[in-house]
Specification:
Layout lengths: L2 H30 L3 H21 L2 H16 L2 H37 L9 H12 L2 H17 L4 H20 L9 H26 L13 H17 L1 H16 L3 H36 L3 H28 L1 H9 L6 H32 L5 H25 L1 H25 L7 H29 L2 H4 L3 H23 L4 H9 L2
Helix pairs in contact: 1-7, 1-11, 1-20, 2-5, 2-6, 2-8, 2-10, 2-11, 3-4, 3-6, 3-9, 3-11, 4-5, 4-6, 5-8, 6-8, 7-8, 9-15, 10-15, 10-16, 11-12, 11-14, 12-14, 12-17, 13-14, 13-19, 14-16, 15-16, 17-19
């Protein structure tokens, strides 16, 4: 399967996941708003969801896929399956121990990650209760990451990419059913149970698909084999190297809990909008690149690997720069259309929109990280990204503390964006110095043209919104109608500008998608 077809497969299912995720968040905003219960639930949800991003979309695959691919290419399917079975046994045991330990330590963990909650009566206790209900999700989703790594290594991307949709459907059902079919102790508790149930559903889905591919898992006794030890050594640094974005968001949550009531929720909703292009483009490209680069490098085709990474970078910029420009220029209409109803007020819309503008400035950098990090992991180097991530984590923390006073929650989002650009820049610099990555002539020619087309689109959208406010016909349209109009105009303008400037051609994209 070609890079573009693999990205299209993963990106297509991820797009469905993000759309259902928006439906989920619209329902959550209506049900919870941006107050105490919402803050408590989002912190509780972030615990297992953090590990979902780190494992299912990051560190585990980054460590597992190269080792599994080496077994598959060098020793055959039987050896690869035996390795996967050993990993399944050890991972299950380690996860069970971790979940039990966190269930006991949850009150102290919540106090450490959201210290500001202690200032509101009952908020810290509520967040701890919800986190205890939701945290077993980690056990199932980390095992899903193992099955996903096997599927991706076999060139089968669809089942793993579809799994997050099931999480959204479970939360949508819980949000719609609350007050009609069940209530529990409150909406937060019902939603927390839905998170854990979603983990079970995703586990069953990937388990069945993995069995169909003939790759188990088989039940064996947990043993620390040499291969499992190697995997373990690579996962720990990979968590930091691949997951710096999620770790930065966790740092943001800690500090946001100290800023003001609702700050955690404003950042959550803004990040959910920002996650659409990040997931569809960044995660899709990173997921497709890693097994391809691993195979190309293992077979001694370094020049082909560099070409593949250049095309991944080009494709990422082609889709991400207009997404970032569009999100920044349409932040207000996007947030108002998606969330402003029920308990979510106009004040919440303004605060969330400002955070979205700041997050969108770092969106291209986050996607570039997803493109560049596989260049290290495919060469079985998990140490260098960790060192870079450590620098970025410190910079994020320093900037958070410096900006939270004058800019509040917007300063937190700004710090995340700046640290993302630092991360991408350092990754690219080190790959270049090692001779593992250089921009080819096509990339050098097209990158500035892509940027020019995206900036032109953003400028036009800002001008059209200003003109539209004074146009009675446009003002009479519902909010969703105006937003759809701006998006359609922006997309058309960008496509025309990109074609006119030579940033991309439709024939090239069609040919790339057909190449298998």
């Amino acid at each position: 399967m070609s890079l573009y077809r693999a990205v299209a497969t993963v990106g297509g299912f991820t797009l469905i996941s993000r759309v259902t995720g928006f439906v989920r968040d619209v329902l959550l905003a209506r049900l919870l708003g941006a107050g105490t219960v919402a803050d408590a639930f989002f912190v509780a949800f972030r615990f297992p969801n953090l590990f979902r991003h780190l494992f299912a979309e990051g560190a585990f695959s980054a460590a597992f896929v190269p080792l599994f691919s080496r077994k598959l290419e060098g020793e055959g399917a039987a050896a690869a399956r035996a390795f996967a079975d050993s990993v399944f046994a050890m991972l299950s045991l380690a996860l069970l121990a971790m979940v039990l330990a966190m269930e006991v330590a949850m009150p102290w963990a919540i106090a450490a990650f959201a210290p500001g909650f202690a200032e509101v009566a009952g908020k810290l206790e509520l967040a701890s209760d919800l986190a205890r209900i939701a945290f077993p999700y980690l056990f199932f989703i980390a095992l899903v990451s193992l099955f996903s790594g096997i599927q991706n290594s076999l060139g089968r991307f669809a089942a793993a990419a579809a799994a997050p949709i099931l999480l959204n459907l479970c939360l949508i059902a819980a949000a719609l059913g609350y007050g009609r079919l069940w209530q529990g102790d409150g909406p937060g508790q019902v939603l927390a149970w839905a998170v854990t149930i979603a983990g079970v559903v995703q586990f069953v889905w990937l388990f069945v698909n993995n069995r169909k591919s003939g790759m188990g898992p088989g039940l064996v006794l947990p043993r620390l084999t040499p291969d499992v030890r190697t995997l373990g050594r690579r996962i720990v640094p990979g968590v930091v190297g691949m997951g710096v974005y999620q770790i930065n968001l966790l740092v943001d949550t800690v500090i946001a809990s100290l800023v003001s009531e609702g700050a955690v929720s404003w950042l959550y909703y803004a990040d959910r909008v920002n996650q659409l292009p990040l997931g569809v483009v960044g995660i899709a490209i990173g997921t497709a690149l890693l097994p391809m680069l691993s195979r190309q490098i293992k077979s001694g085709r370094g020049d082909v690997a560099q070409h593949t990474q250049n095309r991944g970078l080009e494709f990422a910029l082609l889709l991400t720069l207009p997404a970032a420009a569009g999100a920044a220029s349409l932040a207000g209409p996007i947030v108002a259309t998606l969330f402003e109803r029920g308990a979510f007020t106009a004040r919440d819309t303004t605060a969330t929109s400002l955070a979205l503008v700041a997050f969108s400035c770092g969106l291209p950098a986050h996607v570039l990280v997803k493109v560049l990090v596989p260049g290290f992991f495919a060469r079985e180097d998990t140490v260098t990204p960790v060192r870079i991530a450590a620098v970025c984590l410190v910079s994020n923390l320093v900037l958070n503390l410096a900006l939270m006073g004058p800019l509040g929650h917007v300063g937190i989002a700004t710090a995340t964006a700046v640290s993302a650009w630092l991360n991408a820049g350092l990754l690219a610099l080190i790959l270049h110095r090692r001779g593992h990555f250089r921009l080819d002539a096509r990339m050098k020619r097209r990158a500035p043209r892509i940027a020019a087309a995206a900036l032109g689109m953003a400028a036009l959208l800002v001008a059209l919104q200003a003109a539209g406010a004074a146009t009675p016909e446009l003002a009479a349209l519902p909010a969703w109608g105006r937003l759809c109009l701006w998006i359609a105009i922006g997309g058309a303008v960008y496509a025309v500008a990109a074609g006119a400037l030579g940033a991309a051609t439709l024939s090239e994209l069609r040919a790339a998608l057909r190449r298998g």
